[in-house]
Amino acid sequence: MSEPADASHVESRPRTWPILSGTVPLLADGFTRRPETGHGPWESLRPGVTVVIGPDGEPRAIARHRGGTGKTQLASAFARKLWATGDLDLLVWVDACSRDRIVSGYARALADIKIAAPPGKPEAAADRFLTWLGDTGRRWLVVLDGLSDQADADGLLPHGQSGQAVVTTRLPSLNALPGENGNGLRRSAPTAQQLSVALPVFSQREARQYLSDRLDNDPYQAAGALDLAAAVECLPVGLDLAVAYLLDTGQDCRQYRLAIDKYRRDWVDGIGGDPLVPSWMLAFDRARQFAPTELPLPAIKLAAVLGPSWIPGAVLTSAAACAYATGRQAVTEADQASIRAAFGNLQRVGLVAIEPDDEIRTLRMSAAVQSSVQRVMGPTELRRAVQAAADAVYECWPDGGSNAELEQALRACAVSVIRCDDQALWKPDCHPLLLRVGQSLDDELLAETALGYWRDLADSATKQHGARAGVTFQLRDMYASAATAAGHAEEAVTLRQELAADTDEVAGAASPQAIAARSRLAAALRAAGRFSEAISLGTRVAADSEKAFGSAHAQTKQSLRELGGAYCDAGQYREAVDVLQRCLTLQAQTAGMMHPETAAVRRELAEAYRKAGRVTEAIRIYQDALAQVESALGVAHPDTVAAREGLAAAYYRAGRTTEAASAFERALADWRRVPGNGPASTIAARTNLAAAYSMTGRPRQAIPLYEGVLTDVERIRGASHPETLRTRWNLAAAYHKARRLPEAVELGEATLADCERFLGLGSRDTLTTRANLAHAYHATGRLKRASAHFDRALRDC
């Protein structure tokens, strides 16, 4: 039976090529295509190849130039050139600062090319997108920009003979990015198709020309440009900082060279061979010349640990950030204005970029500058900044996940903070931000990513506090839940067994904690299909719960419900009925007949009755529920109409289709009388009534219902949504039953093509559509086509 449509889905627009997914960074002022040093990466790029653009491969260069060589700008220019010349059908730009960013970017790209994916499963969408890239004949380019951890790309590299991929990273030695399916997604490109290209700094000629162009060819300011370039080792980000300083102060290149030479002498220990330190320190001291003079220092530290992705403005002006910057706990609006001014001064000298009108993508610092600032900060100073940044991100995290884009930005900030100092957030205990990140991944249904995150967090807790500390128990429980959510049933059982044993030893076998741990273990055993063990343990848990908490306690009712479900899964329907009937009685007594938990137990009990062959009792449950709700709330109440629809569904499942049709007709009429209900509220009732009509030999009555549902679902869900496609083949089947065979074949062929295109060959809906079309061909006497589609459906199954 169908579920009511969700009106929040927007109408799908037709797919038109070419398609751009993601935001390609703008080219900076004075961008140069680097005629001497910028050709290498693109000469290696060809269809079927992934090019990894990293730092200069020479060991000394890697040690000194850990970023800032202009990889993102060159990748942006290359992507823009291909796009402008019409050489691409699809351009995808992904911020690769974290694994969930990559997954979300792929899911967004799949939606942009109008291919349906399992609702609410971004990892499945990412997998489908990677498969599409491998199979399509469309020309594509995927750029993963700023990969900061090799594990983030595990299983996520795009590959296909019609496309090409670019990865930019500050990490050295990425000749073979991971291709193992270590996080539940498909294997990515073979390592033989990956080429690592080192992007050097500017040549001296390029650096001198760049400075001259940025300084408007002013001979006064450009005097000594070659010496300045040599002083910053021709590092593009260092040249950018120099230009910003020169334009702000009006000095010339010789004066700048003398200034950074002084910083190099004075900070010889702190610089540690990093050529960027004198440049950003000089810029920083320039920023401190403007009010508020005392705030640029904490501001630059916060930006250095929160980046390199865009940082939401609310984080930078939060109470925690202001308290860290000002040293005062009582934060005022004046403090927030001052910290905004401090970041503005950092922007003035080129240390950060600010988008004042964007609340989510507000401020960004170059990854090279970020890394350089962190290296100059001592361990104690860095730890204080990390803890303050963690407080600021946690403070700004909204409840309820109402803004997915904001949550993603906050997760990116949190990942950066954690990677700066993974020990700082465990002193003295687990920082709540660590939990919030994992909960956000759970809420976004990033199951495999969440599993890896909770696993790492549980391991860290074990190392920090021991396996049996309270916080470790909590994180081990979250890890086990994540394993279940990701479909790793046996891993979840092992984790639950270890937790139950440790809880017994720490808290005692009769403690509420131990009973709850055994209850979760029983549920894990059931999810793993180990039904006899689940029943044995579930029986013990139910008895222990009633003894410890009483029969009316939520734990007792939940344990009975789980036990009844385990009996049902094992095919022991009589035992399932007995347990679920007791659970329903307790639930109704304590929460009422229309409580969602009561309704859920009622459905499970009715299903157990039906599977046990006791159809009359199954229907009686829904009849009793309808009578009680109707008496309490009246005929026109939504809960009453929902209860009537539930009864109709029970009739349908029991094969009493005539009574089901009559009940659905009544429910549909009642839905239309409920104030505030529109077509979306009646989609399920109309679909189910049409199905009942078809089952009772009345396809001509079913057809107009299906046609109306198709119009509404296509408008609400979109043309490529699985529910839309399902409605189309339901309509085609109704045409078939009504002997309107040409229409059945025409609609079936079109629906099959779209199912293959949007859902894939192995989708259940695609298989059903193919089988229905084969039946239609058979009915029209086109036996060869019918046989071919039956054979194909069998192979696909």
Structure characterization notes:
The structure is a single chain. This protein is mostly helical. It has a 6-stranded parallel sheet, sandwiched between helices. A two-stranded antiparallel sheet has the order 7-8. The model is unreliable at 1-14, 59-63 and 178-192 (pLDDT under 50). It contains 37 helices and 8 strands. It is globular and about 95 Å long. A hairpin with an 8-residue loop joins strand 7 and strand 8 (363-364). Helix content is 63%, strand content 5%.
Features:
63% helix, six-stranded parallel sheet, two-stranded antiparallel sheet, 797 residues, single chain, mainly alpha, 37 helices, 8 strands, disordered N terminus
Can you lay out the helices and strands and say which pair or pack?
Blueprint: E1 19-21, H1 40-43, E2 50-54, H2 59-64, H3 71-84, E3 90-95, H4 99-112, H5 122-135, E4 140-147, E5 163-169, E6 194-198, H6 204-214, H7 219-222, H8 225-231, H9 236-249, H10 253-266, H11 268-271, H12 277-287, H13 296-306, H14 313-316, H15 319-326, H16 333-348, E7 353-354, E8 363-364, H17 367-376, H18 379-396, H19 404-420, H20 432-443, H21 447-465, H22 470-485, H23 489-507, H24 512-527, H25 531-549, H26 554-569, H27 573-591, H28 596-611, H29 615-633, H30 638-653, H31 657-673, H32 679-695, H33 699-717, H34 722-737, H35 741-758, H36 764-779, H37 783-796
Parallel strand pairs: 1-3, 2-5, 2-6, 3-4, 4-5
Antiparallel strand pairs: 7-8
